[in-house]
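Appendix B, record 7
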Amino acid sequence: MITTQSEIALLRQKIRDLRLQLVQHPLYAQIKNLADVRIFMQSHIFAVWDFMSLLKSLQAQLTCVSTPWLPIGSPNTRYLINEIVVGEEADVDESGNRLSHFELYQKAMRQSGANTNQIEQLIAQLRSGVSVQNAIQTTIKEKHIADFVNFTFKIITQSPVYVQAAVFTFGREDLIPDMFLSIVNDLDRNNPQQISTLKYYLERHIEVDGGHHSHLAMEMVTELCGDDNQKWELATEAVCEALRVRIQLWDGILAGLKTNRN
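Structure tokens (predicted):
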């Protein structure tokens, strides 16, 4: 029987080319000034938001979030997902104030002058009771963003929890290349007090999400898939699809940058 360590290695091998396409995507090299950063953030904020939604879907299925409380699933898996939730939902900003990573990104957008109207309209509709599908349809006009978010919610509503965990772990975490952080560092030097929060967000994301959380998430996928080959196959297929949709999102943002310049 194949060990779970071998399965993780095999999954990584199968998604390697798609991950390279993302890490080496031409979008990064085209982000040259503050206006480009704003355009990027106005689209990327939706990926930050639906990431949080995928995270909470995992927590809802792997732990008990209702009353009366009942023990659900593996205590180790409960610990893994709950620790990730704490870090994502109640981290700290550069001043030590508690914020979710989504709220921290919104703060970075406001500091840079990026337009937050679209994401705020989406959140307002959801708060008022509008369904996710209708809120996306009425507030997100860009096809590449809508397709990306709709894919995430298809995973949330239609896929088993081990597939959701795999997409969360291998399709969403640890995808920020060093080059992008270098670009933001350069822009921060030339635009003081306008990019510093984004710079902090990226550094925090790499430190927490790409490091500690990544290890916890891999352990979670290992527990959920175990030694079931079919689960690993389905999980790998979903991760590949998630990476393809992310590449399409990046393609759309790149096209938007070029259109804005013209």
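Remarks on this record: The two ends are 57 Å apart (CA to CA). The chain has a mean pLDDT of 91.
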